Amino acid sequence: MTYADKLLLEVSGLSMSFGAQRVLDGLDLRLPPGIHALLGPNGAGKTTLVNILSTLLRPTSGRARVLGLDTQSDRRRLQRRIALTGQYAAVDEGLSGAENLLMMGQLFGLSRGVSLKRGDELLGRFGLMPARAARVSTYSGGMRRKLDLAVSLIAEPELIFLDEPTTGLDTRSRQALWDEIHRLAGQGTSVFLTTQYLDEAEALAERILVLDGGRIVAEGTADVLKDRVGGTTIQLHDDSGRLVSEHPTDGTTADVARTLTGLAGRDPGLAVTVRKPSMDEVFLQLTGHVAAGHEPTEREEAAA
Ligand SMILES: Nc1ncnc2c1ncn2[C@@H]1O[C@H](COP(=O)(O)OP(=O)(O)OP(=O)(O)O)[C@@H](O)[C@H]1O
After folding, report:
1. Which atom of ligand 1 is found nearest the CA of 41?
2. 137-178 pLDDT tens trace
3. pTM of structure
4. Which residues pair with residue 171 across a beta bridge?
5. Ligand 1, from 18, 200, 212, 289: best to mutate by most atoms within 8 Å of Cβ?
6. What is the position in ligand 1's atom list of the atom closest to the CA of 48?
7. How far is Cα of residue 45 from the mean position of the Cα atoms in its chain?
8. pLDDT, tens digit, for every residue of 181-235?
9. Which of 225, 250, 281 is the last residue of a domain?
10. Phi then psi for 143, rounded to 5 degrees?
11. Domain boundary among 191, 225, 259
């Protein structure tokens, strides 16, 4: 097995333009198997990248290998090993949930019996058993999204692309999807998801990629990205909550104790907080603008 075979994704010099608009601008990426989140604001090019990686779209230039296969020349072979769940549920409205799963299972070469069995397992896992025989046209948005995910999992892909999987879902459905993504990862399926939500990227992904201006502007674990933006600090506040001073720390008990010993003599009455920058602050620092759906805090406005 070559090194490239062990990589989940390998992208070099990838660019995509629509007319005069350059959406991706010479992207380079090498990712191992695992859960990866592509984070970026509206229009950053997340869907465009996912569509290229999942073979739906041909890049203007550059190349991408997924699971060791070229997205253009090995298109067919690659399509059998990946699944894509889009922002808009792509299931047949006229069929029931069970029929959609049966159809997709058979399309992927599974027998009728196996398709039905696996389909019912998936319906159960997503809490859709009561709606098993109901037409999808009667499903709520959240139910459709879950069915969409179930449909893309029936062939047990090695890699699943989830394009903004929880956009528009209520908190409970969102949590159910998060749980399912963790479960998938636990059984060895890799996940490449896009999101505009920092908390989602932080909760799910081992590695976060920040896409902005057609390029990956940062890459790493949530902790690594937070460290790039100044890391952990000890903050001291007075009675009225005003920030009096802020001191860098590595966050360990030894370092916090040492720092506080020095400070306690000077300001014995102040309140202490040990604080890591939020993913929102990280996003602002890395891209120069706030993330979608986020009201900037005073602190972030000051930082901008
Ligand atoms: N087929 C297309 N033809 C022309 N322009 C396109 C096409 N697809 C995408 N674009 C443009 O490319 C840019 C990036 O779009 P894309 O959907 O990849 O962004 P995104 O990061 O997924 O955004 P969102 O979070 O809003 O889904 C946008 O300005 C969009 O209008």
Report:
1. 25
2. 999 888 888 898 888 888 888 999 998 888 777 777 788 788
3. 0.80
4. none
5. 18
6. 18
7. 14
8. 888 888 889 999 998 888 888 889 989 999 988 999 889 988 888 877 777 889 9
9. 225
10. -65, -40
11. 225
Ligand 1: distance of its center to the CA of 159 in Å?
Answer: 23
Overall domain count for the chain: 2
Pocket test for ligand 1, best of 22, 25, 46 (most atoms within 8 A of CB): 46
Can you spell out the DSSP letters for 108-126? Answer: TT--HHHHHHHHHHHHHHT
Task: Give per-residue pLDDT as tens, 68-90.
Answer: 999 999 999 998 889 888 655 56
Residue linked to tokens 């070099």: 12
Instruction: Note whether 141 and 282 are same-domain residues.
Output: no
Residue bearing the CA closest to ligand 1, atom 8: 48
Length of the chain as a residue count? 304
Q: Are residues 220 and 234 in the same domain?
A: no
Q: How far away, in angstroms, is 247 Cα from ligand 1 center?
A: 42
- Closest to 148 in 3D by CA, of 91, 63, 226, 69: 91
Cβ 44 under 6 angstroms from ligand 1: yes
Of ligand 1's listed atoms, the one at least distance from the Cα of 49 is 18
Q: Which residue has the tokens 């949590």?
A: 175
